[in-house]
Amino acid sequence: MWMIATALTVVYIVWGSTYLAIHVAVQTLPPFMMASARFIAAGMILAAILVCMGRFRMTRHQVFDSMLIGALLLLGGNGMVSWAQQEIPSGVTTLIISLTPLFVALGDWAVWHLFRDGKRGAKPNALTFVGIGLGLVGLVILVAPSIMATDATYLNGYRVLAVIFACLSWCVGSLFTRWQHERQRMNQVANLTRNGNSQCIPYLRWFGIDTNCKSSRYRKSLCS
Length: 224
Known about the structure:
This protein is mainly α and about 220 residues long. The protein has one domain. It has 10 helices and no strands. Helix 2 (about 30-55) packs antiparallel against helix 8 (about 185-200) and helix 4 packs antiparallel against helix 6 (about 125-150). It is globular, with a radius of gyration of 19 Å.
């Protein structure tokens, strides 16, 4: 029981502070550079630990799975959120991201309806949607005061759509993790954090980030 309580406490603290930390970081760092650097570093640390334990391995299937899942979770999910939070308050981002469990439940239902083989997907019951609804209500109560205290009267529509896209991308990636070829979790996490976020690097320029430091927004922090 104490392990469950500890795990939930870590999730509450780490997840709860993630979007605030991203909002602060993207004020001085290009969003895709920040997103790629944090997870590439995490992946290298995990890989080093597994090497020391003699448990690190990378098969062809794992490389494929980590590239695909990394693109969905870390590029499409975390990367787009980081880009959107340049102009969206963290409280608003948190509210939109809280729709992800609903998307996952609906996606799981769609997969179940599509295949109907008893192995893929699941049909959610009423309690699932009640739980999701209660979670959304609780989150609104928690973050509403911070949103009201900030100037959130105007929101960039493209950035809002980017967060919604991130939710959908995270949903698809989460569902795919259930059917990946090999389920050695620590190896998979180490691989996808390195491979997935290396895919963020090409988007530095595509999303208006000048890698030659000609952008005034990041010139002081990166080029001084």
